[in-house]
Amino acid sequence: MKTCWDFLMIFFIGILREACTAHHIDVTDEQMNQFVSDLMDHMTLCEKIGQLNLPSGGDITTGTVKNGELSEMIRKQEIGGFFNVKGIDKIYELQRLAVEESRLKIPLLVGADVIHGYETIFPIPLALSCSWDTLAVEKWLAYLL
Questions:
Q1: 0.70 surpassed by pTM
Q2: Which of 8-17, 101-110, 123-132 has the lowest mean pLDDT?
Q3: Interatomic CA distance for residues 145 and 132, integer angstroms
Q4: Which residue ranges make up each domain of the chain?
């Protein structure tokens, strides 16, 4: 079991290292501040407020939370992201709308509210790590392997 745990830790550290270094672009703080200031100057008040709006897409939610108007809201820059849209094709299309068909071409934040687990009986890895219960995590891994 320890060997498996060690392998997983090394694997995830390698992925994290690669993600942090793979696409580095040399931009100074001054250049980034200027870019953000210029973008904010071009945004209307409604677009700025829209960036704070993160509606639920409804694929993962239950009840009356469903929302079928995401595409039009993206084109109008009325949202800064969305939750609970399931499937890479749907997410890709919504992201494409944001970066190709909206006025300012700002990419969207994408998330899913699944803290208790997504299509599984187990919590997500973030929740497992927050428990600080390494024995429980090891039992979870043993069950999966």
A1: no
A2: 8-17
A3: 21
A4: 39-113, 116-145
